[in-house]
Design brief:
The complex is a heterotrimer of chains A (493), B (180) and C (497).
Chain A: H1 8-22, H2 27-55, E1 60-67, E2 70-75, H3 78-104, H4 110-128, H5 133-151, H6 157-189, H7 205-218, H8 230-233, H9 239-248, H10 250-266, H11 268-273, H12 278-297, H13 301-322, H14 325-356, H15 372-386, H16 393-406, H17 410-427, H18 429-436, H19 458-476, H20 479-488
Helix pairs in contact in A: 1-2, 1-4, 2-3, 3-4, 3-9, 3-14, 3-19, 3-20, 4-5, 4-10, 5-6, 5-10, 6-7, 7-10, 9-14, 10-13, 10-14, 12-13, 12-17, 13-14, 13-16, 13-17, 14-15, 14-16, 14-19, 14-20, 15-17, 15-18, 15-19, 16-17
Chain B: H1 2-10, H2 12-30, H3 34-55, H4 69-77, H5 84-97, H6 99-106, H7 111-122, H8 129-159, H9 164-179
Helix pairs in contact in B: 2-3, 3-8, 4-5, 4-7, 5-6
Chain C: H1 7-25, H2 28-56, E1 59-62, E2 73-76, H3 78-94, H4 99-105, H5 111-130, H6 134-153, H7 161-191, H8 196-203, H9 210-227, H10 234-242, H11 245-279, H12 282-303, H13 307-327, H14 331-362, H15 367-370, H16 378-392, H17 398-412, H18 416-442, H19 458-476, H20 478-493
Classes of the chains: A mainly alpha (493), B mainly alpha (180), C mainly alpha (497).
């Protein structure tokens, strides 16, 4: 079985970004390049799956060394493959959706948007396949930089404030905490490579605990409270950007770092036995509950979804902090499951905005009659986030639940269950009210207030239909993902 | 008390140098008139010159120029009490056989005189290097004064004053005018 | 007679004599031509010298044939060969390309004086770096400083505040040099020699001497003033803001670096590890002020409206990094300082050249004048962007490598709060750089100042991008930094001044 070399997954979107920037004057050609790159990337990443799974290969690429023994290294491993697979798979529908959204909404600076988007994907690939902490850090920062112009896309005062928060929190955590942890690891162990079982064998337990804290809090993209404020405020960006942030690349990068560092720097067993990690469990649990409660109070649809994301991300942090294979498996699965569910919800929110110019939850009553397809997809996404069969989210929650029991934290299982109930409370009423309640009466002159609203542009609909189907498919065919997480964390016990 | 007095007296040059430096530094910091600041800077540097000159001094030594043995002996004899004929014998001996022979020809002296003479004969001259160095530093200092005064003249031309508080006020007014 | 043995002397003499000659020509174009030729020649000479040091080890040159300790000797090892090449290299890039900028900012009848002063200043800095004699060092520092005061004052035709900035610089610079002079006096008093190598040997037996300790204190304080280490940094902010832009580009990339070099030389080679760090608390003193410099300088930079002043305060912070590394007293810390020295010279030089391009097109360099220039001046904007990222120290620029070393050095010494300060400093750099980039790239052109007519001449952006290429090379090539580290280790061992 042939596979591509891992650096190609970076080269494709990078070259794409350059071509997109050059083709600014010809929008159709520019968008064609975006789609072609997305397809090519999907093929490239796809070719890595069989190689890693069937043949146990770990394709690698070594770049220049910036310091003796410290260089850019890419190495494909199963956990990264999940993240890369999700990002590559969702880039295609997201591009499709972006085209519909940006044109339907007459956004300015579209070239910059698509170029930065491609750069973000390239950074995400770098994070996914990073072979050491240095490479991880490089692309983690690159992702923050590449997404900054996307968050401040509108250039308004509000967007700039969001941009400042975004940069402040992400750089603040990564440059001060994560980089400190990386350099510290290097001074203590002389290496920053990822190795199965961890690299901190000789480090004293106290210092290991300090490093654990620095790494976990340093991954600000995971939006663990109190480092979550940037995420809701970044909602000011266009909806495809929100999808990128919440599903494709950014927050997933954060939780991916948490998982990857737990597994390959500390080692699952070290997390469980040698590190004072309980505080992270409680922090994650608190984030899950508080974020869900805050989400219920938000009338703005995107803000509600944003707080939902904050809560869902902490599921993955919880999985990493539990320190057992089931937790890692659950966390790894949840990266994919949440991505498909949440991107569907954001696509729907954007479609409603483009078609009906509605942003408030309270305005959506009865909208199901005008936009039945969109609302149906919304319901599918919501159910996946809640974690009900027959949708993908059920699997990850199942494993996470098992993991809490195995770790002996039954209380956390209760937290997960309460959280699911809260998810039901803040997500499900939206499609239900849209379908089963009648729209509010108009002012009389024009009939109903929703008069003249149609479904969103076709590219948007195709995109959200695909991702909704994906959520269903992940429930019935989770084998591929399960096999990948089993490679990382054997579930034999 | 006596310790303080000796400290003051023996190290008088150094007290002077530090005092001058501090007076100069005070002027540089506290005076608003730019020319007075320059004067302060000059005082500050002059203090350092005294420091360098003082450090070259060797007590009881001669000037740092080339002396023949006879000249050196003659200088030494003029500072001690010695009978004229023994002095003449010593001067004759130094022409023939050098300083050691001359010292022998001189015969025994009063202890204080002997010590003074031996010191003079052994330690030939004060250290000239600090003086040379300070000549260079003086040149540097003079150049600094020249540049400083040139800048002060330009400031006078540009602002019409050399009082630093008035300059600050003028700048603030310019900024206020630019804003409105 | 072949000139090869005379190269160490020529490195200083070529710019010195060229400066004198240019002062006499009274023709703007000819002055520029001569100055360009002289600076490029000097750069070539420093490269030849560096190659010789690489091949033969320490190169010693007795001025006028008088052997040390009677005579003055030039003594060049790997460390100062590097700094010599840096200073001459920056001059060789900035002087030949400065013509358009100087024509815009300096009156035409002063061009010959301008170039004469620039070359004398460069000669002074090269001499300071090459010399092996402590008093000679003082005189050369004053040569470079006196010319620098005059160069800053030449900014008066654009803004009269250049004069007050120059005066303040003169006062602070003279006091700093005088402190150095006093310190050298005490060291001479104790050791009886001015030759640095001799002094180092004799100081080893005099560690208990109060005279020596007084001298060390005076030298460190004097050098802090010359380096513009917080809290004696204010002169630098004003001087960089109001000097002609090409002067600022040259000084920002060389003058403070030479100051840091001298400090390394004194602390490591002349005083030695024990006197500097065990007997005297030089490390605690420098570390404390370096940390303050990083935090306060960066915070000040965030608040600035004039981009030159912003960059000047950023330099205050960057000097903090340089001093921090050398004060750690370890191979890691010193490596960080050396990489940062090179990187910051390249990046700051490039940024001030880019700002010069904006001044050329827009007549000023406040945030207003930079608003939205990316559309019309894409290359200048790109230089500002890459330079800004280099200041932050994002990975794959030299700034990241140096930051890595500094953090690792601080952690190795068990000083994790210092490591946090280094990282917080780069976070603050993110704040001021992103603010700048937001204005340059996303500002609406024409809203607060007229949109530029077009890209500035290539003589602005081409050298800027060239320098940035060097910074990136430093960031990705482990080999390049490996060589620097070897030099650092050599200086730390105190093998030879």
């Amino acid at each position: 079985m042939t596979h591509v070399s891992p650096e190609l997954t970076l080269v494709i979107p990078l070259v794409g970004a350059v071509i997109i920037a050059l083709l600014g004057r010809w929008p159709n050609a520019r968008e064609a390049v975006t789609l072609a790159c997305a397809a090519a990337l999907l093929l490239a990443v796809g070719s890595l799956f069989p190689a890693v799974l069937e043949h146990g290969a770990r394709p690698a690429w070594r770049g220049p060394e910036v310091l003796p023994g410290l260089g850019l290294v890419l190495e494909v491993e199963p956990l990264g493959l999940i993240y890369a697979g999700v990002a590559a798979l969702l880039w295609l529908p997201n591009s499709l959706y972006s085209i519909g959204y940006m044109r339907g909404h007459h956004e300015t600076n579209q070239t910059r948007f698509f170029a930065c988007f491609a750069l973000s994907i390239a950074s995400a690939m770098g994070i996914a396949f990073s072979g050491n902490l240095f490479t991880l850090f490089v692309f983690y920062e690159a992702l923050s930089l590449a997404t900054f112009p996307l968050v401040t896309h509108h250039g308004t005062e509000k967007a700039q404030r969001a941009g400042r928060l975004y940069v402040g929190f992400l750089f603040g955590t990564s440059m001060v905490l994560m980089l400190l942890a990386i350099v510290w690891t290097w001074t203590l162990t002389g290496t920053v490579d990822f190795r199965a079982g961890g690299i901190l064998g000789d480090v004293s337990p106290g210092l290991t605990a300090v490093l654990f804290g620095l790494f976990m809090l340093g991954s600000g993209k995971a939006a663990v409270m109190p480092f979550h404020f940037w995420l809701p405020s970044a909602m000011v960006a266009p909806t495809p950007v929100s999808a990128l942030l919440h599903a494709v690349a950014v927050v997933k990068a954060g939780v991916f770092v948490v998982l990857k560092v737990s597994v390959y720097v500390f080692g699952v067993d070290t997390v469980a036995s040698g590190v004072h990690h309980e505080w992270l469990l409680y922090l994650a649990a608190a984030t899950i509950l508080i974020a869900s409660i805050v989400a219920m109070t938000k009338d703005d649809l995107k803000a509600r979804l944003a707080y939902s994301t904050v809560g869902q991300l902490s599921y993955i942090v919880l999985g990493a902090a539990l320190g057992n294979s089931l937790g890692v498996a659950g966390g790894g699965l949840h990266i994919a499951m949440h991505a498909f569910g949440k991107i569907t919800l954001f696509f729907c929110a954007g479609a409603i905005y483009v078609a009906a110019h509605k942003t408030k939850v309270s305005e959506l009553t009865g909208l199901g009659r005008r936009m039945p397809f969109t609302m149906l997809a919304f319901a599918v996404g919501a159910l996946s986030i809640i974690g009900l069969p027959p949708l993908g989210g059920a699997w990850s929650k199942w494993y996470l639940g098992l993991a809490t029991l195995e770790a002996g934290h039954a209380g956390l299982l209760v937290v997960l269950l309460i959280s699911s109930l809260l998810n039901v409370a803040y997500l499900l009423p939206i499609p239900l009210k849209a379908f089963f309640l009648s729209p509010p009466a108009g002012d009389g002159a024009h009939g109903g207030a929703d008069e003249g609203i149609h479904e969103a542009p076709l590219p948007c609909l195709i995109a959200l239909g695909l991702t909704a189907l994906g959520s269903v498919a992940l429930f019935f065919w989770p084998d591929l993902l399960l096999r990948l997480v089993t490679e990382v964390a054997p579930l034999g016990s | 008390m006596s310790l303080l007095a000796t400290g003051l007296f023996n190290l008088l040059n150094y007290w002077v140098y530090v005092s001058l430096m501090m007076i100069g530094l005070y002027a540089v910091i506290a005076k608003t008139n730019l020319v007075k600041k320059v004067i302060g800077l000059s005082l500050f540097q002059t203090g350092i010159f005294i420091f360098y000159i003082s450090m070259g001094v060797v007590s009881g030594a001669t000037t740092p120029i080339t002396w023949t043995d006879a000249e050196r002996l003659r200088l030494g004899l003029s500072r001690v009490e010695v009978a004229p004929e023994r002095a003449a014998a010593a001067l004759a001996a130094v022409e023939e056989d050098g300083l050691d022979a001359a010292r022998a020809a001189l015969g025994p002296l009063a202890p204080a005189d002997a010590a003074r003479l031996d010191e003079l004969l052994a330690r030939p001259y004060t250290n000239p290097l600090p003086h040379v160095l300070i000549l260079t530093a003086i040149v540097v200092s003079v150049s600094t004064m020249a540049v400083a005064l040139a800048i002060v003249m330009e400031i006078k031309a540009a602002y019409g004053t050399i009082e630093s508080d008035e300059i600050v006020t003028a700048e603030l007014e310019t900024a206020r005018a630019a804003r409105s | 007679m072949t000139l090869t043995p005379q190269v160490p002397a020529l490195v200083v003499l070529v710019p010195l004599l060229a400066g004198v000659v240019i002062g006499l020509v009274r023709h703007a174009g000819l002055a520029w031509l001569l100055a360009s030729l002289a600076s490029v020649t000097t750069f070539a000479l420093t490269l030849a010298l560096a190659a010789r040091v690489q091949a033969e080890g320490v190169v010693i040159y007795a001025m006028g044939g008088w052997a040390a300790p009677t005579g003055i000797e030039l003594r060049v090892d790997a460390l100062n060969a590097l700094v010599l090449a840096l200073v001459a290299g920056m001059a060789a890039v900035i002087v030949p390309t400065s013509r358009a900028s100087v024509a815009r900012e300096v009156p035409a009848d002063r061009h010959d004086q301008f170039y004469a002063l620039v070359l004398l200043c460069v000669a002074g800095m090269l001499g300071v770096t090459a010399t092996g004699d402590a008093f000679n060092l003082y005189v050369l520092i004053e040569i470079s400083s006196l010319t620098a005061y005059a160069l800053v004052a030449l900014g008066r035709s654009r803004d009269r505040r250049a004069l007050t900035a120059s005066f303040q610089y003169l006062i602070m610079g003279s006091i700093g040099a005088s402190f150095l002079l006093v310190g050298l006096g005490y060291l001479f008093l104790a050791t009886g020699t001015l030759n640095m190598a001799d002094m180092a040997v004799r100081l080893a037996d005099l560690h208990g001497s109060t005279t020596v300790r007084t001298g060390v204190a005076f030298v460190i304080v004097g050098l802090s003033l010359k380096m513009a280490l917080f809290p004696v940094h204010q002169w630098m902010a004003d001087a960089y803001t109001y000097a002609p832009t090409s002067v600022t580009a040259l000084m920002a990339s060389t003058a403070t670096k030479v100051g840091v070099y001298i400090t390394i030389r004194f602390v490591y080679t002349i005083f030695g590890h024990e006197l500097s760090f065990v007997i005297m608390p030089t490390d605690a003193f420098l570390l404390a002020f370096a940390c303050l410099a990083i935090v306060v300088g960066s915070l000040q930079a965030i608040r600035q409206h004039d981009v030159r002043r912003l960059l000047a305060y950023s330099s205050v912070a960057q000097i903090g990094y340089l001093v921090l590394g050398l004060a750690l007293g370890s191979a890691l810390g010193l490596s960080g300082t050396l990489v940062h020295l090179l990187n910051h010279a390249l990046v700051k030089g490039a940024l001030f050249l880019a700002v010069g391009a904006v001044v050329y097109r827009q007549g000023g360099a406040t945030m207003h004048e930079l608003t939205g220039i990316a559309r019309r001046m894409p290359l200048t904007a790109a230089a500002i962007a890459v330079g800004g990222l280099g200041l932050i120290g994002v990975p794959l620029t030299g700034g990241f490598v140096s930051k890595w070393y500094l953090v690792a050095g601080a952690l190795e010494a068990g000083l994790w709060p210092v490591a946090v300060v280094v990282l917080v400093g780069s976070l603050l750099a993110v704040a001021y750089v992103l603010r700048l980039l937001q204005v340059v790239y996303f500002g609406e052109p024409g809203t607060v100042a007229p949109e530029p007519a077009g890209e500035a001449p290539a003589s602005f952006w081409a050298p800027a991008l060239l320098l940035l290429l060097g910074s990136v090379a430093l960031g990705v090539s482990g080999q390049l930094t490996g060589g620097l580290i070897a030099a650092a280790a050599g200086a730390l061992a105190g093998g030879a001044p």
